[in-house]
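SEQUENCE-TO-STRUCTURE ENTRY
===========================

Subject: a protein chain together with a token-level encoding of how that chain folds.

Sequence line: the amino acid chain in single-letter code, read from start to end.

Question of interest: how does this chain fold, as expressed in backbone structure tokens?
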Amino acid sequence: MSAQSDPIPLRPAQDGAFQTGHAAHHQRMAGHHKALIAKFLLMFIAPVLVSAWYLWTRAADRYVSLSGFSVRTEQTGSALELLGGVAEMPGAAASDADILARFIESPALVAKADAVLDLRTLWSLPGTDWRHPASDPIFAYHAPGQIEDLTKYWNRRVTINTDTGRGLIEVQVQAFTPEDARALNRLIYQESADMINHLSAIAREDATRYARAELDRAKADLKRVREDMTMFRNRTQIVDPEASVQGQMGLLSSLQEQLAQTLIDVDVLRQSARSVDPRIKQAEARVMVIEARIAEEQAKLGLGSNQDGGQDTAFANLIGEYEGLMVDLQFAEQSYAAARASFENALAEAQRKSRYLASHIDPTLPEAALRPHRWGLLAMVAFFAGLAWMLSTLILYAFRDRR
């Protein structure tokens, strides 16, 4: 056998150095393993155990009350609309659902619910004191807090799901007792119904505002014209000038007939009697009296003077003024009737399109506590803890390799 196939013997110094280096490597690896295990225990096992202890021993049960409702429009369309399927547009219902969802999340509703149900006490029932064995400082509300803090907690305990296509709304309310959960859900439904009624009232007022203004204007005009007519009758002491004129014309016709007959009688007397016959003088005096009366009655129909020497308004002018007032009165009455009919139609149309809240799921009274999701929360803690441990380990080994 050749000399090259024989192993080269190690010298004692080299053998000792090799063993020392190998032992040091094993010690370093053991230290790294211990540090890795310690980090695993600290970053994964400890958070999971603490979370499990808290979830099963300190976290208070929360009950969920469910309700479902939608915004409906009480609208009866025409036959063409019903055949065409456009009696109710889904966009309006979706818009109302969005408005209602924003209202449920608003601080205004939170403040009203707090005033009615005392939310600060209702949601802080488990307590936030660590020293108390039944305290739940993580999931309970930290009273008193500001309205902004209460609104943030409200949005974590009140869940709103909306179906924008059909305008459906589903509300889930969490509380630490079943009765509190249902009471709060009922309050949300009632306030939502009041809000929809308020929106309907605003829409109805907007729809009838113009018609109401026209009705008020027509009513004021009719009242003014009637007052003018009353003032005319009080001033002239004549209820109906046309009837008075007809009476004056009948009297004037009668006087003219009497005058004609009297003139005929005077002519007959002058031809058959002597010139000194007293009957002729009487007939002539009668003619003069009738002519004076005719002149007086004609003056009433034209321009004359009253007994006190003042100038009165002629019947022709009175009739013109009266006819003008009658035209104004008839126009005002017709305008008022048209405005009233328009207002009633607008009001009926607004009532026909009024909105209301329809409940298809009444607020429920829960029997079992569905929150918190203990296993789900524990799994989430374990996932993030394991992820943090793995990332920190990779970063640590990356720095070691660079050295």
